[in-house]
Design goal:
The protein is mostly helical and 246 residues long. Helix content is 71%, strand content 0%. The protein has helices spanning 5-35, 49-76, 79-111, 119-138, 144-158, 161-171, 192-220, 227-234. Helix 2 (49-76) runs antiparallel to helix 3 (79-111). It is globular, with a radius of gyration of 24 Å. It starts with a helix and ends in a 12-residue tail after the last helix.
Length: 246
């Protein structure tokens, strides 16, 4: 059975994207562990930022894709958009969990506790629970169309929590530091080498997330046989011979 043009295009893109992601991760590791200096107060523990922040950013980007794909599902009901929404939700849940774990390790060093009822931590935990619920809705019984539409509604409503998480450190008094990059100041309060390492890590995480999404969507979308394959599987067409009247 031959591959459709779309499947062939995805198969040809994935290895290049994966290689690019690996190279970006190697560069980010070198910058974060060797080139960038240790923070003056927190020391080596500050290097957790090069995983914690990119994981959070990748999660936000994934949940934004869930929002876009969910709207497309409600409007067009196309299975590929449904697959994109599910794959993005899985990526976002994984990255949010990683950000929480890394934040807990970092917080234990900076604050002396593994967890505190801080506004950023609590809202992030709620975000994780919301999208775990989204994935749970996808597992409910029912036909594919109704399940995908129910999940799409949750995907649209759940995105409201994303800006709440981001602005939590600005809206409430919190132990968590303000945004490192996206904050209303003239320049980020971070040294140029640290900023370079952080941006390299963000790029590496985004490329790795894009690679995951392409692989996962290809797994979730049902394979549709090409017209040529349909004809090849049917075998020879029987010839019916009729006897003329004598």
């Amino acid at each position: 059975m031959g591959l459709s043009p779309e499947k062939h295009r995805h198969r040809s893109i994935r290895p290049g994207l994966g290689t690019l992601a690996l190279v970006a991760m190697a560069v980010a590791l070198a910058l974060g562990l060797v080139v960038a200096p240790a923070e003056a107060i927190q020391g080596q523990a500050q290097r957790l930022m090069y995983v914690h922040v990119p994981a959070a950013w990748t999660a936000f980007a994934a949940f934004a894709l869930v929002l876009v794909a969910s709207v497309a599902v409600l409007m067009r009901r196309h299975p590929r958009w449904d697959a994109r929404a599910q794959a993005a939700a899985e990526l976002g849940v994984g990255m949010t969990a990683l950000a929480i774990v890394e934040g807990s390790l970092w917080g234990h060093t900076a604050w002396g506790v593994w967890w505190t009822w801080d506004a950023r931590l609590v809202t992030t935990a709620v975000l994780l629970l919301l999208y775990l619920g989204y994935l749970g809705v996808r597992g409910l019984p029912g036909d594919r169309v109704h399940v995908s539409r129910r999940a799409a509604v949750v995907g649209v409503v759940g995105f409201v929590q994303v800006p709440v998480v981001h602005f939590s450190v600005l809206w409430w008094r919190t132990l968590h530091q303000p945004p490192t990059l996206l904050q209303p100041t003239a320049s980020p309060p971070i040294s140029p080498l640290m900023l370079t390492a952080l941006l390299a890590a963000v790029v590496a995480f985004m490329l790795g997330g894009a690679w995951f999404l392409r692989r996962r969507v290809a797994q979730l979308v049902p394979v549709e046989p090409s017209p040529s394959a349909d004809h090849a599987d049917t075998g020879p067409v029987p010839v019916v011979v009729t006897r003329g009247a004598s």
